[in-house]
Write a structure and sequence with these properties.
The chain is α/β, with parallel strands linked by helices. The chain is 43% helix and 13% strand. The chain contains ten helices and eight strands. Helix 4 packs parallel to helix 5. The longest helix has 13 residues, at 33-45. The protein is globular, with a radius of gyration of 17 Å.
């Protein structure tokens, strides 16, 4: 099956649905592939249409636990670059071999490790690994650039997390709407979506599907939100 057919099938499977990001930070008690597999099972039982994962070990564990499509962002830091989401072909190949269905790449304009152009990485994933690609972006211009580079999906994941994008308290619905009217691939809303109402607003803004992470799969972070809010009783 070609990557184009796979992209179309996955786009149909996730349309207007919830993609749950099953990731944990290293300091979290849930930082293990086994915990992420359990999170994926819970998400699937709640009606999620796909899972976003981080790295081959988690991908393999999740694929053994659920039948949903898995988007893998395989994060790895390199000292010479700020790009850490699927930064090189090495991470892409490892994710593909673990069973990922879509590979997620940093789609910003920032230099990649080794200086490889985004277009070349996307072409490698398509032609050598046979998989669709989702580009994580922070601006409209980056989203357009990702489509020109061949990405099959665009996600607003990095809005507010690059030095040149506007930090926000909630999801960047303006970017979702702008991308939805300017690109001809599915736009996935992701980033700071914490309530069902925000998820619905993202769909109404033109998102093809919605990714939710911390609000569902990071109880330590959610607990911190509550604790910080409760502390306001003593603030004045």
């Amino acid at each position: 099956m070609s990557w184009k057919v796979k992209a179309d099938l996955i786009a149909g499977a996730v349309r207007a649905g919830l993609i749950v990001s099953c990731q944990a930070r290293p300091q979290s008690p849930l930082y293990s592939p086994q915990a992420m597999a359990l999170m994926a099972r819970a998400a699937a039982s709640g009606g999620a249409v796909a899972i976003r994962a981080d790295g081959p070990e988690s991908v393999a564990a999740i694929k053994s636990a659920v039948t949903l499509p898995v988007f893998d962002c395989h994060k790895r830091r390199y000292p010479e670059s700020d790009v850490y989401i699927m930064p090189t072909r090495r991470e892409a190949r490892a994710s593909a071999e673990a069973g990922a269905d879509v590979l997620v790449v940093d789609g910003t304009a920032r230099p990649r490790p080794g200086g490889e152009p985004l277009r070349d990485l996307v072409c490698f994933i398509h032609e050598e690994l046979g998989l669709p690609v989702m580009g994580d972006v922070s601006t409209l211009e980056e989203g357009i650039g990702c489509v020109e580079a061949g990405c099959d999906f665009i996600a607003t994941t990095l809005s507010g997390y690059t030095p040149y994008s506007q930090p926000r308290e909630g999801p960047d619905l303006d970017l979702v709407a702008d991308l939805a009217t300017r690109v001809d691939v599915p736009v996935i809303a992701e980033g700071r979506i914490r309530t069902p109402d925000q998820a619905l607003l993202a769909l109404r803004a033109g998102a093809w599907a919605v990714v939710v992470g911390s609000a569902i799969t990071a109880p330590d972070i959610v607990a911190r939100w509550f604790v910080q809010r409760l502390k306001e009783v003593h603030a004045g």
